[in-house]
Specification:
5-stranded mixed beta sheet, GIY-YIG_endonuc_sf, GIY-YIG nuclease family protein, GIY-YIG endonuclease, GIY-YIG_endonuc, DUF4357, elongated, about 250 residues, 4-stranded antiparallel beta sheet
Length: about 250
């Protein structure tokens, strides 16, 4: 079995952090925003993850590092060593690049780490756990981005300054990059639709929505979640998402 621990920490708390469990060997994800608005991630490994995060901060201050990350998510394990974390880093970078959900900032990894077959099996199990946990934390960096096909029916959600485009996808409903959300949120959304209110705030805090615009494709769990976030009020997605010809989602 592959045992480990996931820890999410904001950039602002790294310098004063003294957690012992963060001083072990592990892999980490640094989530940030590119200048062109695309969401990006740096994936790395370290024998002392906390020290490595502090090194990232120092490198940014001295100009050695150009990207600015807001949040770190780290994965440590009591049995990890240098060879294992190099293997993990390389595999996680490969998976993240294949998913095309984020711009991957990591340049080089160790691709030829010598491992026993049993070690590979344990690390692949560790990676499956990482996929589940990091997705649960709200980062779909290791999940394949939903892709439109020739048969995809595009749907539109408009109103209150909002103008969004998306399609039904395997995990729910995907809103496309450059979709625009409403310029206001009705007070009732904070009470009757608090889940959607919190979700919109989170998407803005995470940089998925910037200046009322989606900076990348984002998959919601359901059409109504997408339309509520976009319109700024509670919504029935089956009614508010329509084709270019005006056919409602529920009638498709």
């Amino acid at each position: 079995m592959a045992y480990g621990k996931a820890i999410k920490i904001p950039r602002t708390e790294v310098h004063n952090c003294d957690r012992e469990d963060m001083k072990g060997a592990g892999v980490y994800f640094l989530f940030c925003q590119e200048e062109d608005g695309d969401a990006s991630v740096y994936i790395g490994e370290a024998e002392n993850v906390l020290e490595r995060l502090n090194q990232h901060l120092r490198d940014y201050q001295t100009g050695k590092e150009k990207y600015y990350w807001n949040t770190a998510v780290i994965f440590v394990g009591r049995d990890l060593n240098k060879a294992l974390i190099r293997y993990l880093e390389n595999r996680l970078v490969e998976i993240a690049r294949d998913s095309k959900s984020y711009v991957v900032l990591t340049k080089n990894t160790y691709k030829n780490t010598v491992m026993k077959e049993s070690q590979v099996a344990v690390m692949e199990e560790f990676i499956e756990n990482v996929k589940i946990l990091i997705s649960t934390l709200g980062y779909k960096v290791l999940l394949p981005a939903p892709q439109a096909t020739d048969d995809t029916i595009y749907l539109y959600c408009k109103g209150s300054g909002a103008n969004a485009k998306g399609f039904v996808s395997a995990g729910g409903f995907t809103v496309l990059k450059d979709s625009i959300v409403s310029d206001h949120i009705v007070p009732s959304l904070e009470t009757r639709g608090k889940t959607y209110y919190n979700l919109r705030n989170k998407l803005e805090a995470d940089g998925v929505i910037s200046e009322r615009k989606f900076v990348r494709n984002y998959e919601f769990s359901a059409p109504s979640a997408a339309s509520a976030v976009i319109l700024g009020h509670t919504s029935n997605g089956n009614m508010d998402w329509k084709t270019a010809g005006g056919v409602r989602l529920k009638d498709l």
